[in-house]
Amino acid sequence: MASEEGVVLILETKRNPAIWKNFDLCLMSDNHEMTRCKNCGKFMKAAANSTLKKHTDKHCPVTKAKKEEKGEGSGSSNM
């Protein structure tokens, strides 16, 4: 997929700031836009906000690890 060398420019977006604080909108060397997760670095299509929120909430390994540290992950005990 995309690599760091493929990013030409980080674009500004006026999309939902609560979601986009975790993402960069990148202009790639082949002139299309991709989204990059600021936490794990994964590139995705510049998709709908719900897709990005799902990545942050359920799929991003960095945010999953942070949730587990806080005891919000499944399998935590209060003993």
Summarize the structure.
The chain is α+β, with helices and mostly antiparallel strands and 79 residues long. Helix content is 30%, strand content 24%.
Keywords for this structure?
single chain; four-stranded antiparallel beta sheet; 3 helices
How many helix segments?
3
Low-pLDDT residue spans? none
Q: Biggest sheet, strands in spatial order?
A: 1-2-3-4
Class from helix and strand fractions: alpha+beta
Bin the strand percentage: 15-25%
Q: Whole-number average pLDDT?
A: 85
**Counted beta strands:** 4
State Rg. 15 Å
Order of helices and strands: EHEEEHH
Distance between the termini: 44 Å
Helix content: 25-40%
Largest sheet: 4 strands, antiparallel
Give the overall shape, derived from the CA principal axes.
Answer: elongated
Topology:
Elements: E1 7-11, H1 17-20, E2 23-28, E3 33-37, E4 43-45, H2 49-59, H3 61-69
Antiparallel strand pairs: 1-2, 2-3, 3-4
Overview of this structure, please?
The termini are far apart. The mean pLDDT is 85. A hairpin with a 5-residue loop joins β3 (33-37) and β4 (43-45). With 79 residues, the chain is α+β, with helices and mostly antiparallel strands. The protein has a 4-stranded antiparallel beta sheet, with no helix packed on it. It is built from 3 helices and 4 strands. Helices cover 30% and strands 24% of the residues. It has helices at 17-20, 49-59, 61-69, and strands spanning 7-11, 23-28, 33-37, 43-45. The longest helix has 11 residues, at 49-59.
